[in-house]
Amino acid sequence: MLRGKVMPVPSRMxxxxxxxxxxxxxxxxxxxxxxxLVGTHTSQALQFVCEFAARLPVLEALDLYFQVVAVxxxxxxxxxxxxxxxxxxESLPPLVTLPxxxxxxxxxxxLVLAQHRYRRRYRERTxxxxxxxxxxxxxxxxxxxxxxxxxxxxxxxxxMPVEQxxxxxxxxxxxxASTAQMVWQRVQARVAGEALTEQYEDPRPPVIEEPVPLVSxxxxxxxxx
Length: 225
Known about the structure:
There is one protein chain. The chain is about 65% helix and about 0% strand. The protein has helices spanning about 25-50, 60-70, 75-85, 110-155, 160-170, 175-200, 215-225. The model has no long low-confidence stretch (mean pLDDT about 85).
């Protein structure tokens, strides 16, 4: 499978191996696929921020999303902007304030140590939860890639095989090898039924004509006598 690379913006994605007549439709497909990925990341980031609102301030939660979910660098600012634009701060639960030592408690080494341990466990648990939610977001992104790749293969149907069209999509969108493998396999599984159906559309076997035997000049002369 293909190795991942930095995902370029749609206008920078290659049209190599694409027929000239399909340059515009393919460029539109790149842009549409990009937009659908931005939409998926935005909805996932918005849900992430809302779910972590009690644990983290919004901006910190949004930064954490970018840490646990592989959002292409060229796409991050757009995702961040759209997430903040769609956010409704008044609907968020209040931020939980961690207990703090007061007065004479700060002079107790055991209490200071206990508080430090509690805060550390709280941060570790927050990161653990973020990774779990990040895995859920990654699944949504993979599903979006599968739909994008399927549309791309349909666009190039008759021009290049499904496998080649899928590789073209994965290459241009710069997916990491592990993610590309999952997308590639799911695309093949989705088109398998269609491919099997197509082979039975015309059940008649092709007519094979027997080749005309070559006749030497000597044999030709004998036949003419």
